[in-house]
Amino acid sequence: MKREKVMIMRCDTYDADRIRGIIREGMQTLGVIPRGRVLFKPNVVLAHPELFAYAFTRKEFLDGAIGAARDLGEDIKEIGVGERSGITIPTRYCFKNAGYPEVIKRHKAKVYYFDECRHVPFRLRNPGRLRDLIYVPRQVVETDFLVNLPKFKAHPWTRLTLSLKSYIGLQDDRQRLVDHNTFLEQKIVDLQEVIQPGFIAIDAIEAGQKMMLTPTPFHMGAIVMGTNPCAVDTVCCHMVHVDPRDLVHLRLAAERGYGPMDLAAIDVLGDYPLEEVQEQTRDFQFCLERIDAYFGKGSNLSCTVGVFPEAHSPDYCWGGCPGALQEAMHIFRGFYPDVDKNMKRVRYVVGKVEGPLELEKDERVIFAGDCTSWQGTLNGRVVRIRPSYKGKAEVDTRKTKSNDLLLKTFQSLWKCFRNRNAPYVHARGCPVSVADHVNYLASVAGIKNPNFDSRLLIPVNVAYWKMRLMRFLNRIFS
Ligand code: SF4
Hints:
Rossmann fold; ten-stranded mixed β-sheet; five-stranded mixed β-sheet; binds iron/sulfur cluster
């Protein structure tokens, strides 16, 4: 097997010119020459200068990367920037908050909000695939050269999000939630078959710890570059003391032949020695904890976790509802630091649970997810929560449901309103998204809903209606 090269370079500040020079050096060292239609894929899962300041690839990084590609590229026909932000959030809202429009304009690049683009079926052939057919934006399939620009972050579902995981941002909501459960790691690997990146540059200048939407910043002062996603992610794992075999999607991707996960098979280059990075990242924090251990102590939220339907992961659902609950609670903590103490008592129940819940007085219950089932008595009333989980074979990627922002918000708030005097509410979905968790928690726990914060409400809704219009026009004209 060819030896892969990965570079770790020092970069202490978000200086676009300096980043451009470093990425240019990386491209030259790795023999990379962008050609044809070049598409840049940053990670902009969520962006806001105050509220979500560390969740996304910074605009200076995008600026530097496009600049380097322009410096070295040959016969470039188009520069494009494309991404799909977190579920239900309009991508154009996040791009604006991230400061991308000025960069895109300066480089005369095209912008592709993947929630507004046409998505096309892509047939998978790898023998280890989860699905036969997945949907991705037409621009991704047609691009000649993909430049992947992930943000270096910890992740509560998958431990880390690097170059492989960043491909989740290719899919729009309709498809993105399919298999976003105990199959998430396999889904990430399926997406790798669509396109191999021509170049990867990871923004590890200010890395993110613990959460993916509300990460705590960690100054790493590095840019990591390579051409093979497995090799790049392997080196990144070592940078923060993670065994690459514990990054499940990396292990699966290596098993499917996408690249190495053994450091001995990779030449690590650059001016920032791996050992020195490791010295600096001793205290880098993750949040890969089960929710029944994570909440409870010092919080009015406690969790009961049952068993899960898939044989490969009966004890826990790492890719679905539990992680979404953690992200939602961290969003609340960002808005209201004392929320854990001030919220009303809530028991969160997920999976197949048997036996009494032994609730505190006035404690209400959120039963979360399609796989959840329980039977018992709440406030003297017999309650039966029936599961509606569909196995992989029962979910058809050609017939998916809308995950429209307004529709989902209305549905969850209406359900909470109808059940306002009941001791419980059942949030359905597989998974129940972070946004839905925010709505259910706000209603049941009596917390002010951040979705109605003035910094979000109007700009998100303006972006939403623009997105709907452009999506409609693109369906007709492209
Ligand atoms: S309903 Fe939620 S917890 Fe259950 S399998 Fe689906 S994503 Fe996982």
